[in-house]
Design brief:
heterodimer, A: alpha+beta, Immunoglobulin-like, 2 domains, four-stranded antiparallel β-sheet, 42% strand, elongated, B: alpha+beta, Rieske Iron-sulfur Protein, five-stranded antiparallel β-sheet, 49% helix
Chain lengths: 140, 342
């Protein structure tokens, strides 16, 4: 290699990690937390208590499960396939705050744990790639 | 080396290399598919293809980017450099399959053009975690496409080695785009931190290798001191037989070769891809480039007939066992009587 190309190499490799590494780390720190409610865990999670409330539309059936009138688990049954490769379920609390519940995919039963005392007013399914809303279901 | 245009410059070694490469790629795809079906049996075939070829391309890109600095840090790795272009084109093919299937699966079901859909379905360009990561992958793929298309020596000769090298340094930009594509895309739905940490460590490792190689090369770029145009290089016994000693004179590296009781000096920069001739050795009486085997006669800097590449030669003088090189290069291909010693 000739000296100008060597210099260019050096500049690139001294600068690139300084820009890219912080962006990669930030992307991990800021991503939604699916550790408790991934689809794999949800489908293998047993149902808790009884169905305290149920709501349904053409694509979804949603059950709020728990005991002693306390909601402990959200059960989402996908009836018709969701035509998006990466869909996230958000819950809207009665306080107006949105919480990320987890991912959802093909037909089946998905269960997401709820913090006792949390009251969901509606759930929203969002296509994460196209950033568009797929389905919205009011629970009240 | 070849005088006529051939679609793929294959020889026996390269054919063996390519067969091994193909087998390893297929082995990876089979292994990835088996593990995926065990962990998640509901995975669709399209998703499997996208993930298998995407991860394969990233793995290959890391190997390709490690070969250059490893070769500069330790000459034992030079053998890997010999057929790196075929590795690069194979990596592009894996990335292309990943990209094509992604476009079909994610953007072909609507009533708009797939490329229009790719660029307009998510316009959240000012968000980090919602950034349209597929666009990053698309631009990375376009860079890899340009590199694969111009990888043939036809383009190297027509663009000039300097221009060609500059163009192919865009692989670093493609690498940065690929890393962001993965971290802002697939990793946003990945619950296990293990694979993220592996790739992050991979990026830091590649960066560290390039920085270490750059520091080593910078030390070798320190110009030698001149005395009336003559630069002291080394003592005769510092050069192993049929090998070279490299010094930097006025920002140009020159290689002093010792062979059969003689000394000759030529430019260190191979005409093919600017490879470091001084790291090669004399084979069959010719200086042989360690990168791709281009050859030059040491006394005149000419490729043996019928090849036509030529390099500048340099005048030498001996004072006892001390070798001095004159700073003014001779014309390319100009014969200089080899200096006899001993």
């Amino acid at each position: 290699m000739i000296k100008p190309l060597r210099s260019r190499h050096q500049i690139i490799w001294f600068i690139m990690p300084l820009i890219v590494v912080p962006l990669l780390v930030l992307s991990i720190i800021q991503r939604p937390d699916f550790s408790k409610n991934t689809k794999e865990i949800a489908t293998s999670t047993p149902a808790i208590g009884n169905i305290l409330k149920e709501v349904e539309n053409q694509q979804l059936k949603v059950n709020l499960r728990g005991e002693d009138n306390t909601y402990q688990q959200l059960e989402v049954i996908v009836k018709t396939p969701i035509e998006a490769p990466f869909t996230i379920v958000y819950g809207k609390l009665s306080t107006g705050k949105n919480i990320t519940l987890g991912t959802i995919g093909q037909r089946g039963v998905y269960r997401y744990s709820l913090t006792p005392g949390q009251t969901l007013s509606e759930i929203v399914l969002q296509d994460k790639i196209k950033q568009t809303e797929i389905n919205r279901l009011k629970l009240k | 080396m070849s005088l006529s245009y051939k679609m793929i410059l294959w020889n026996k070694q390269k054919k063996v290399y390519d067969i091994i490469l193909f087998v390893l790629m297929m082995l990876y795809i089979v292994l990835f598919s088996s593990v995926t079906f065990v962990i998640n049996p509901n995975t669709t075939i399209e998703t499997l293809i996208i993930r298998a070829f995407g991860t394969l391309a990233i793995l290959m890109l890391h190997i390709i980017l490690a070969i250059g600095p490893l070769s500069r840090l330790n000459s034992k790795f030079l053998v890997l450099l010999y057929n790196r272009r075929h590795l690069g084109v194979s990596m592009f093919l894996a990335a292309f399959i990943h990209g094509a299937f992604s476009l079909i699966q994610f953007h072909s079901l609507g009533n708009t053009n797939v490329f229009y859909s790719l660029f307009t379905s998510n316009l959240d360009y000012f968000s980090l975690i919602d950034f349209p990561f597929q666009v990053l992958g698309f631009f990375a793929l376009m860079i890899l496409l340009v590199m694969a298309v111009t990888s043939h020596d036809f383009w190297l000769h027509n663009l000039s080695p300097k221009m060609w090298k500059t163009l192919h340094m865009m692989v670093y930009l493609a690498y940065a785009l690929v890393m962001l594509h993965v971290f802002l895309g697939a990793f946003q739905q990945e619950s296990s931190p293990f694979i993220q940490e592996v790739l992050l460590v991979g990026f830091i490792f590649i960066s560290a290798l390039h920085i270490a190689a750059a520091i080593k090369e910078k030390k070798r770029d320190i110009n030698s001191l001149s005395n009336d145009g003559w630069h002291y290089a080394c003592n005769v016994d510092q050069i192993p037989e049929k090998r070279a000693f490299v010094i930097s004179i006025k920002d140009e590296r020159v290689a002093i070769f010792k062979y059969d009781g003689k000394l000759s000096t030529i430019s260190n920069v191979c005409k093919h891809q600017n490879g470091p001739l001084g790291e090669g050795k004399i084979v069959d009486g010719c200086v042989t480039c360690p990168w791709h085997g281009y050859q030059y006669l040491p006394a005149e800097g000419k490729a043996p007939a019928p090849f036509t590449e030529t390099l500048p030669t340099y005048n030498l003088k001996l004072e006892g066992v001390k070798i001095f090189v004159h700073e003014h290069p001779n014309a390319e291909g100009e014969y200089v009587e080899p200096l006899k010693w001993g």
